[in-house]
Amino acid sequence: MRTVTNFNDGWLFEGREEVRLPHSAVELPFSYFDERVYQRPFTYEKRFTADAAWRGRDAVIVFDGVIANTRVELNGEVIAEHKDGYTPFEARLTDRLSDGENVLTVHIDGSENPEIPPFGGMIDYLTYAGIYRDVWLRVTDPVSLANVKIETPDVLAGNKIVRIMAELSNPNRVPLDGELTAVLKDATGTEIARTRSSVTGEKVEMSLEGLGSIRLWDVDSPVLYTLVLALETANGKDATSTRFGFRDVAFNTEGFWLNGRKLQLRGLNRHQSFPYAGYAMGRSAQIRDAEILKHELKLNMVRTSHYPQSTYFLDRCDEIGLLVFEEIPGWQHIGGQAWQAESVENVRRMIRRDWNHPSIVMWGVRINESADNHEFYLKTNAAARELDITRPTAGVRCITDSELLEDVYTMNDFMLGHEELGGNRPRTPLRPQREVTGLDHRVPYMVTEFNGHMYPTKSYDQEQRQAEHVRRHLEVLNAAYGDPEIAGAIGWCAFDYNTHKDFGSGDRICYHGVMDMFREPKFAAYVYASQCEPSEEVILKPVTLWARGERNIGGVLPLIILTNCDEVELQYGDNPPKRVVPDRENYPHLPHPPVVIDHRHVSQSEIGSWGWLWQHGTITGFLDGKTVATARFTADPKPTRLEVIADTSWVERHETVRVVVRVLDQAGNKLPYLFDPVTIALEGPAKLIGPDVVPVLGGSTGFWLRSTGAGPIQARVSHARIGSVTIDLTAR
Ligand code: GAL
Fewest CB atoms within 10 A around its CB: which of 281, 374, 474, 551? Predict the structure, then answer.
């Protein structure tokens, strides 16, 4: 039987520092740094003793992800090489181990190797350097299970089928005769069906048929099943279990269909980067990001721009019902033949790693925003179709009239804002698909990026700019919902991210997120959140900092209130309240248009102007005439309360937890222009990621702590004027 042991501990980095994986070769400042500091070679070394029990068995080190150009040596002999930074690879120890101590050396190179994607041109993101995902030691019998593909054809039919394709690992080419048993279990572990097949070669195909009461995987009910495979041959036993779901996806000219039901796609792009640590954030941070996208932003889709992301992230997407459009590494640039061959391999590696995730509904097989390249993209499409006939391919472009070799035409439509640059067209949120494709017929089509660099917005930008940021996200979503030829829209992007000097605001940050780098929402986040049904959560978010002199000329009108309430009331000071319904006229297609309050509803004499007394306000949301939410604003905000909230009150060993810090006024609103420092002090088995004195930005900041053992942890956050707040966590 197999044993899989975590191999993250006890690495010597650069010959001097003992580190634990996942690890970033260079911890970066929050902003204004030189990204070239990590663009060089680094070495990791780990000493271990071979266990006598491994003798006669197959011992392999599995790397989940290393950036980049990795060379692995065992006792000085090269045992594996892998250039790509986003997919797993193995280094086989079998027959090479010494008695006593062994030395495993991992050479990486963070320089942007122009021979492999995504490098060779400019890229608007950082790739960092390091063994940034987990490493495992896997010991199996000489014949073991290598990979399994599970397909569920025809799930809409009465009797369901599971098709299984198992690949065996048999590095020493020993005789294979044996048997493979497949057991299907539901989420409670109850056996539902089983089958057996004799083993004669390295591939075994079998199926489970006539399955009766199977529940489908859907965004609202992400039901998962497990397939347990048990192998028995003369040369060994092995067992694996793999989660999957029964679901049917289709993209056609009418849109996207999940289990035969049309679903409008609403998503955002995600980079897998975090402040300071870059890519090197483990399981809990990956899980948390998926939850933020689904439960806070209420999205039904995420695009893994622009590379395969952590399987922890994808596993969580499976569990919570968040659809995924997964991408290969690349950004605008296409290299030479060898580079292209590597990209085709990237397609294969991505699909072979991830083909059992029910959340993944589409493979990206085109270098993001690259030019057409007939030969190359024939190959990437063919590779995907050969490996997986159950999912469509897509190719993200930003050029029009581009050759469609994929199943879905996916377009980054950055038209909104072009009119300001002197374009000769009126404000157009999205172009009709035929104007983009240049085709005379309708094709499966979706928008995979919009806004982003057209309107970078900081959480501490002027209210008017933030309101315009909101409006642009509203307009595009409304347009996507209103165009039957568009299956959905994925905006740029979920979170602000660190980038190269050639992009962003000069400080190495692209402020393109609807959330900042700490995953704290900007107003635009509520454009997405407010599209959920109030039965899931009532959203009421007035897009205002509530001040007389914040906007040009002054005042807070027109006031956008992002909400799924059916009526909203504004009370300014002690004036009579005004009730306003959602703006269906300007946003007719949104599930939940915002309420927009302006001078039609509130007269100048009621709200006053420059030179008038500024007063408090109350905004109330109603559903069916009942009060369901209230937002209060003070006319005289002061730093009153320090809010310190950890995502969870516990943290697993060596894992991280995010803590959000907000400076609030008397009414509980963030103080947007308070840039004071806060100090963070930890006690107990935990380490802070990043500095211990940080500025509050836009009323909030955050940090991640990493547990270093087990026991109670106290995190104390202090602000000079308010004092300190201590929260208790448990590392378990
Ligand atoms: C796109 C690109 C993204 C990001 C975005 C900014 O062109 O695909 O990676 O750079 O622009 O808006």
Answer: 374
Which one of 369, 463, 475, 569 is the catalytic residue?
369
How many angstroms from the chain centroid is the CA of residue 19? 26
Instruction: Report the side by side order of strands in the sheet with 595-597.
Output: 540-542, 559-563, 595-597
Question: C-alpha 726: how far from its chain's center?
Answer: 30
Q: How far apart are CA 596 and CA 590, in angstroms?
A: 14
Strand pairing partners for 572?
Answer: 617
Distance 414 CA to ligand 1 centre (A): 9
DSSP 556: -
Alpha helices in 97-188 (DSSP H): none
Atom of ligand 1 at shortest range from CA of 510: 6
> What's the distance, CA 550 to chain centroid?
34
Q: Which of 448, 468, 567, 460 is nearest to 527 (CA)?
A: 468
Query: How far is the C-alpha of 16 from the C-alpha of 13, rounded, in Å?
Result: 6
Closest CA relative to residue 651, chosen from 355, 339, 378, 287 = 287
Contact 245, 318 (CB under 8 A): yes
Comparing CA positions, the residue from 619, 661, 616, 613 lying closest to residue 637 is: 616
Length of the chain: 732
Q: What is the spatial distance between Cα 363 and Cα 249, in angstroms, rounded to a whole number?
A: 12
Helix (H, G, I), strand (E, B) or coil at 394: strand
Question: Which residues, in sequence order, are CB contacts of 11 under 8 Å at separation 6+?
Answer: 18, 19, 20, 21, 23, 44, 45, 46, 131
Residue 603, amino acid: S
pLDDT at residue 154, rounded to an integer: 87
pLDDT at 546: 97
Ligand 1 and 307: CB distance under 6 A: no
User: Quick count: other Cβ atoms within 10 Å of Cβ 497?
Assistant: 26
HSE of 572 in the Cβ direction (CA atoms, 13 Å)? 23
> Do 512 and 625 meet the contact criterion of CB atoms below 8 Å apart?
no
**Maximum CA extent, the chain:** 91
Single-letter amino acid, residue 52? A
Helix (H) / strand (E) element for 484: namely none
Helix (H) or strand (E) holding 471: helix 463-482
**Known catalytic residue at 112:** no
- Paired strand residues for 693: 679
For residue 423, the CA-to-ligand 1 centroid distance in Å is 20
Q: How many CB atoms lie within 10 A of CB 76?
A: 7
Which atom of ligand 1 approaches the CA of 503 most closely? 10
Question: Chunked in runs of 10, what are the mean pLDDT values of the chain (732 residues)?
Answer: 96 97 98 97 97 93 97 98 97 93 97 96 97 98 97 91 96 90 97 96 95 94 98 94 97 97 98 98 98 98 97 98 98 97 98 98 98 98 97 97 97 86 80 96 98 96 97 97 97 98 97 98 98 98 97 94 98 95 98 96 91 96 98 98 97 96 98 96 97 97 97 98 97 94
Name the CA dihedral angle for 648, 651, 652, 655, rounded to a multiple of 10 degrees.
100
The bridge status of strand 301-303 relative to strand 323-326 is parallel
Residue the block writes with tokens 């937002």: 631
Contact 499 CB / ligand 1 (< 6 Å):
no
Kind of pairing between the strands at 3-6 and 693-695: unpaired
Q: Is 533 a catalytic residue?
A: no
- Contact criterion met (CB below 8 Å) for 154 and 161: yes
User: How far apart, in whole angstroms, are the C-alpha atoms of residue 395 and residue 399?
Assistant: 11
Query: One-letter amino acid identity for 634?
Result: T
Please give the DSSP secondary-structure letter assigned to residue 374. H
> What are the φ and ψ backbone dihedral angles of 301, each rounded to 5 degrees?
-150, 150
Taking the centre of ligand 1 as the mean of its atom positions, its distance from the CA of residue 510, in whole angstroms, is 10
Q: Specify the pairing of strand 11-13 against strand 393-397.
A: unpaired
What are the two backbone dihedrals, phi and then psi, of residue 438, each rounded to the nearest 5 degrees?
75, 10
Q: What is the Cα 191 distance to its own chain's centre?
A: 33
Is the CB–ligand 1 distance for residue 369 below 6 Å?
yes
